[in-house]
Each structure stands twice: as C-alpha cells, then as structure tokens.
Amino acid sequence: MNTNGTNEHILLNGQPVVINGQKNLLELIRSAGIELPTFCYHSKLSVYGACRLCIVEIDGMGVVTSCSTVPTPGMVVHTHTDQLRKMRRVFLELLLANHHQSCTTCDKSDACKLQELARQMGVTDVRFPSIPKEMQTDTSSPSLVRDPNKCILCGDCVRACSEIQGIGAIDFAGRGAGTVVAPAFNKDLGEVDCVNCGLCASVCPTGAIVPKSEIEEVWKAVNDPNVTVVAQIAPAVRVALGEMFGLEPGVATTGRIVAALKKIGFDKVFDTSFAADLTVLEEATEFIERKTLGKKLPLFTSCCPGWVKYAEQYYPELLPNLSSCRSPQQMFGSLAKTTLPDQLKVKPEQLYVVSIMPCTAKKFEAKRPEFRGPAGADVDAVLTTQELGKMIKQAGIQFHKLTPESLDMPMGFKTGAGVIFGTTGGVSEAVLRYAHEKLTGTRLENPDFTDVRGNTGILSKTLRIGDIYLKLAIVHSLSNARKIADQVKAGNCDYDLIEVMACPGGCVAGAGQPVCEGGEVIQQRAKGLYEADKTLQLHKSQDNPYIQQCYQTTLEKPGSHKAHEMLHTEYNSRKRLCGSAINLSEGSGDGKLNVSVCVGTGCYLRGSQTLLTQLLDNARTKGIDDKLHIKATFCFEACTKGPTIKVGDTIIEKCDLKTATREIDSQLKVHA
Amino acid sequence: MCSSCCNAQQEQVRRFEKVCRILDKHQHNPSRLIPILQEVQKEYRYLPEEVMAFIATSLGISPAKVYGVASFYANFALKPKGKYVIHICEGTACHVKGSGKIKDALFKKLNVTTENNTTPDMLFTVQPVSCLGACGLAPVMTVNEEVHGQVTPEAATAIVDEIIKKERN
C-alpha cells in the first residue's frame, strides 16, 4: 500500500512493486533495491536521457530509458534481459572508444563512474577504434582543470551549473561529433563567469573536470628544511576525509588528521574553526551595529568565496550589504602571517600556510590580490579534502592505524560554534549564539537554535531575541541566492541577516570533498558536525579563551581599527567575460575623442543602451561624429553607479545625456 | 578625414543601433534567440563575439548558452565572412556530377582551405554545403543569392574572375 492508500503497482522482473509517488521509473526501480546504472541522471537536475544506460524493457513499449518514463500501474518491466545487458555494454564501449583512456594517470581514477560501470557491466574489450583528436587541457582556472578529451557529454556539469547555480558558465558548443562542453566563445574557464564552486567537478562521472591539485607545491614546502609549514583544517574536512579510508561519512577524524599531517611533515596543525570563532565575533559585531544603528540591512554573509564572486559579477549594487569580514580561511591566514613568525621564531617569508578545505573556490580566494601581505599570500596553498587523502596515501600512512593527536595551540582551540560553520545554517546559528548574549545582556543557557537547521533551499525564519525581532534567511545554492538577492534589490523583503552558501548543503557538500552520491552522505556529514559541537566543552565563540586572548594581545576589540585592517576586506564589481568591446567607430588615436559606454549588465539595466543611442544621434545632429570614437564596452567595473561612460580619460558614473554631452563638448573644445 | 573611414564608422554605428532595434523588436525574449541571431547575422555577415555577449546580457541568459546555439547551426558564422559567399553543393547528385573538382578549382584559385575559407581581402568565402536542393541542375553552386547550375571548374573560376573584375572597377 502506498501513501495514497491505493495499491497501484508495476511488475518488476516478475515481482510487484508499489508505485509510491516516484516521478520516474528509475526512482521506482531504485526504491525496489535495484541500482540501475546511469551517468546523466541526478535527482536534483532535470531529466536528460542522454547516456541510455538506465534502459529497461517494458512489455508493449519495448526498450526505453527509465529516467524519462513515468511509471503507470500495470507496467511489466524487465531490467536485465540479455538484450539490455548487451546494449548497455555496447553503449559503454562506444563511450570508451571516444574517451581518452589514460586511466592509470587520471586524477579521477579512484572515483571514476565510467571505469566503475565498465567493470560492473563486464566490458572487457573495446572493439571500436578510437578517433584520436587531442584537445587542449584548460588549466587557466585556479580551482579547476578541464580536460575535454575525457568528456562523455552526459551534460551533468552543464545542467548543474545552470540549474543549481543559475550561472551557465559552461554549455554544449558545436554539433555532432564536434560537440564539446565549453565556456562561452571557447574561452578558458578562468576568463569567464565561473565562480569556482566546482559543482561541475563533483557531478562529473569522469575526469573531464577535476579540482586543480596543489599537492606538489605542498610537498615541496614540507620537504624544504628552511620552511616552517603550518596547516589549518576546515570544519567540513574532518567529517568527510574518513570516507577515503573506508570510514562512514560523518565520523569526525580530527585527531587522526593531525597525526597524519605531523607524519607528513607539517610543523604545526591548527583549526580553521578557531578563525570561524573570530569571524562570528567580527560578523556579529558588524551585524549588531547595522541593526541597532539602523544602517544598511540585510547583511549577507561573506564566508563563501563562490557566493562572493557571484555577487561581484551579478549584484554589484548589493556589495555594500555583504559583510566586510574575510572568510575564516583568510582571517586565519592574516592572523598566522602576522603573529606566528614571532611565536615560532621564524622569518615571515619562511612561514608557509596551507589550508585544507572542502572547497575548490577557496583556491581562488587564497589567490585574490586583496589577501596578500608583505610576506606574500596570506594562505600559500589550498588543499582539498581529496588532495589531503591523496597525500596521506602518497606518504604511505595507514590512516586507520593512526593514534589521534591534538591540535596545536592557540589557534587549534575552537568552540562548537566554529565547527558548525561547515553546514548550511551553521554560520547563522553561530552568529545567533553571540548576538543573543550581546543583545539581551543575559547568558544563553541552551546554545542550540534548531530553527535555523535543515536542508531547505531557502529557509526563512523570524526569531525573537529579547525585544528585538530578527528575520533571517538561510540560502544554499546560487540559484536560490539569486531569488533572494532579486527580492532584496526590488525592496520586497525585510531580512536582517542572509546566509549564503554556494554548495547545496553548505561546505560539507563542497566540491573538494570525497566524491559521493550526495543526499544522504551530505546529511550524515552535517550530523557529524552537530555531534562534534555537542562533544566540545564550549559552544559559543565569545567563550573561546584564546579568542579573548587574541583580542587582548593583537586585535583590541571586535570591529576595532586593527581588526578591520587584519580581518576585513572590500569587494569590487567584476567583469564576467574577458575582452568583448563593440567598436562603433574605427581608428582611435588619430586625434579623435574616445567615448566608451558600458553595456555590461549593471549599466545595461540602468539604461546605457538608450544613452548610447542618444549619444550617437546627438553626435550626428551636431555634426561632430567624425571627431568622436564611440565604443560600447564591457565594463568599467563600477556597476553600482551605472550607467558609466568614459570620455577621453574621464570616467563619469550615473551618467545621463546632458552630463555626457557637456563633457564631450568641453573636451572637444580643448582638443580644438 | 578619408571618406571610407567615415563610412566605416557610420556603418558600425548603424549596425549596433540595428542590433538594439532587433532586440527591442523581439522584446528581449530569450526564446527568440535564434531569430535574433539570424537578423543580427544579416547585419554583420557573421556573429561577432562581443555582439553575442551583448545579446546574452540583454536577454538575461548566459553567454555560453548563446555561443552554444550559435555554434550548433552551420548557418551561423562565428568568423567574418567575405562579401561573396560561395556555396558548393556536395549532395549526392552534385557529387556524382563532379562537384569535388569545382571545390578543388575554387580552393586553388582563391588560395583557401576548409579551415581558412575566406580570402584575406574579405571578398570571398568558399563553403561546401550538404544539399542546395537543386539536384536537377547538378552540379550547383551559389554566389550569395545567385544560383549557377551545371557548373564546370572552368565556369566556376570564370564567375570568380568576373566578380574580381567588377570589384576592381
């Protein structure tokens, strides 16, 4: 009997299976305990039906793909007839024939779905000759490597990027045998609107898109006797690394990670959760100030580098709403490079900071020019959880035999608030634990704000703290962030605090984590973090004695000038595509006056197209069009103040026709 | 100021304004992408990257999507085409009647290849196509909208010579 109380069923391999609201036959068959193979089916993405592996035979219908077939009562379905088994093998052979079969050296080798299914389906020989066409590997992005030679065109990455993240940085290009998945205009990934979240890499069944490895750089530093190497471990790493060594997801292995890192040769191992505690104090202070002084709200969180780049590209007008706090990774980096050389008695340039992160976008973040001090980058290298697992294997360390060791002090000490940062809702809860005490002036006995936990894409909650009502939104995945940001822009909502994480589920689901099927595994990892919070003695960042000490010795107080210098940053609107200016007249530099009008998103929406047309008309009526070199361009990166135009060397923001013509006329006079 | 330079500028401006009008006409509706690209291509004779990026922005879709559509259809050109686009039919009938030799003759005459099919002076683009649908006239080639039937390699080169002569004057 199903939940509707009816008894509608199909006949699956001769046995009845009740239809219980499953939207397609594939889900129904899986619910009956049969794992149909597929590359292109993901429950969170649209149905594509490209890989053909989930085929089943239905009496009266023949062979169909189960992912795109709706179950109807009375269907007689077979999943492994001789014909189906043979067909699946041929499909795999055909895919393998076009695939760059460099399996032994492939980064994805231990987690490759193509390899796994080929083995499972008994493909022992590829009878079709491969057509050699070597395409260039794209290493332009600091976070991801794209090797189109390994792509099987399942389209998972394309749909994930456009449907879950709402970006569409990559799409199919070309046709037939020439089809490839590529960024716009075949540019490199580093030149387009990709936010480095790596969702494409985590859904890719082969090694066509993988996180960029920094393992070699780290080995070099570790093996250099003149360099002191310190590590910071992000919260989400500890509950996932074990999966690479046969442990269940969600099992916290912090002690063993420390032991492994020490064995590899790291000098000190600290915890990013310490910096997360610091983030809580800084961010909550900023929030309370904005709330109580009636300053700009809502406040968006800024710990997720994927979201930050997204906001810089698409919502420059909301950048003042982004918390100026650096992410915990960068707060740690800044603090480490400032305080550790003295503590460890080394020269600043001999200190090498390695972050171990669940995230590919953190690699991009660490390379942002804002986060460079006199001794180079604040964070020198970023390893993903996967890379750490690989390093442990490379060093021959037997993870399961390790005796747990403790983190180094002081930056290894954290509260539970800093640990739950790794899951969606965690940042908000951690901030609430501080804000509650600060706003009410009373001690918070039960630190759990279970209202803000959960896995809803957009979780909206109003909480009462003392006399103050706080309206929160907890958002994960960037397409959800877009919905909320559009509401904020339109002035349709009155949120106080909005937490945004690019990955669906938060950092525990980051693209740097061990490859998994998602869903259940992500929830177990999140559960692991909440359990870790429970087992710690302290749950509120403000109770962390080492944070208090840190303020006394270095940072003065939350939100101080010194804290701003070291722990905060600013954001700039960012071009989405490199290049791309439309020249509307030829031959600059021959005494003509250059006039460029920005037609990037921000300016476009503010009427730059109309302004441009007016300028062109105006130039014609005045008969000065031969004196001007007019260009439509992307973009001056001042989108908040658009439309922006550039006359000669003068940039005019919020420009209208009158201001523009006045400037043009005056500059032409000087020219004459 | 030379007049050709001024003309080129006016042409650029006119084209961009035309793109804006095309977008307005289709009400910036992303599902009208193909007709928009077709009309824009009529203006530029190909689809310049920066114009596609502008179209993507104004339709609220990703530039990769626009590029995906543009690169899917053989009818959309991503590289500038010559003033005269020569299509040589490679359909069954034309193939049997020797269209291969016409292609060879024109490739040799204009010094172009399948990859680089436009002459450096931007006068000619030579493009073999699947079928022009005029099999009764095989072998067929078209020069822009003009159809030439029962072409020989000699006749094809003569047509090209004629155009070059006309353009020189």
Furnish the topology, listing elements before pairings.
The complex is a heterodimer of chains A (672) and B (169).
Chain A: E1 9-12, E2 15-18, H1 25-31, E3 55-58, E4 62-65, E5 76-78, H2 82-97, H3 113-120, E6 144-146, H4 156-164, E7 170-173, E8 180-183, H5 199-203, E9 209-211, H6 215-222, E10 228-233, H7 235-238, H8 254-264, E11 268-271, H9 272-292, E12 299-300, H10 305-314, H11 328-344, E13 351-357, H12 361-366, E14 372-373, E15 376-377, E16 381-384, H13 385-394, H14 416-419, H15 426-440, E17 458-465, E18 468-476, H16 478-490, E19 497-501, H17 520-535, H18 545-555, H19 561-567, E20 581-583, E21 593-598, H20 601-605, H21 608-622, E22 628-633, E23 645-647, E24 650-652, H22 657-671
Parallel strand pairs in A: 1-5, 10-11, 10-13, 12-19, 13-16, 18-19, 21-22
Antiparallel strand pairs in A: 1-2, 3-4, 3-5, 6-9, 7-8, 14-15, 17-18, 20-22, 21-23, 23-24
Helix pairs in contact in A: 9-11, 9-15
Chain B: H1 3-25, H2 33-44, H3 49-59, H4 63-72, E1 84-89, H5 92-96, H6 99-110, E2 124-129, E3 141-143, E4 146-148, H7 153-168
Parallel strand pairs in B: 1-2
Antiparallel strand pairs in B: 1-3, 3-4
